[in-house]
Amino acid sequence: MGVAKSNLLVREFIKRRKEISSMQYFQIQRDILCEPIAEHFEEFNATQLHKYFLENGMFYPDAKIHEELKLLEKKRVWEILQTHYDKLRELWGGEDANIYVFPAERRNEIVMKDLKGKMGVSFHHVILLFLTKELTKSEIQALLTHEYNHVCRLATLQKKFHELTLLDSIIIEGLAEVAVELTVGETVLAPWVSMYTKEELLPYWLRVKRYLDTKGKDKHDRFLYGDYSGRGFPKWFGYSAGYLIVKAYLEKNNKITMKDLLKIDTKEILKASEFGQELR
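^ thats the sequence. predicted structure below, dont judge the formating
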């Protein structure tokens, strides 16, 4: 386990793409890039994973990625990530993870504008990182830190995605970004950590409390990412709240390590913050 040589898969995809019609790009991308990843899963096949990856930052089958790949290789991104993964795993006593890196889709506005050219998705033992060539070493390390923290927290919770509560998901995101702050530094924190004050979020928190036990990660998106209907929650609401909740726990337990923090019960973390007080 560790960082897979996924650059070789991308090179194979680029080579095969030259030999076929554009109508076949989608299928070839799925077969070459996603079939190997699907071997790690019992519950998802390559088609399902391919669709999910494309929705969450993977380059589209027709994207121009040759130069992107060359520069990522020149920066030795795969080696940087393997070294950082080894460090995090030792630091947190963490789980094994299979990590795949692919170019990000530049036509994805969320990836390019909101997330500054990078996106990650994680499962219980698999991480996907979608990167652009302009990223710094620290930004790349920050993304892996965030996603690998998810892997470690999921291992502690011992829950499948459909068993996670909304509160679990909010704390998972908070822990991950606090891990970035502690491990890589404040300068590479995600934009949502400073998007709102506690006072701005608390009124929305009062509305979310009746949903905190809602199970099923697929039901949490409108709370985590915000609801764009204008009647729901602000952009990145769950991420912002999660970060503030975990920071409040750390202020009261300032000697705890991330290794130990990963093992703390979700509701106990919440109780240490004003968000927890608002639920009483």
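Residues 54 and 157 are 28 Å apart (CA to CA).
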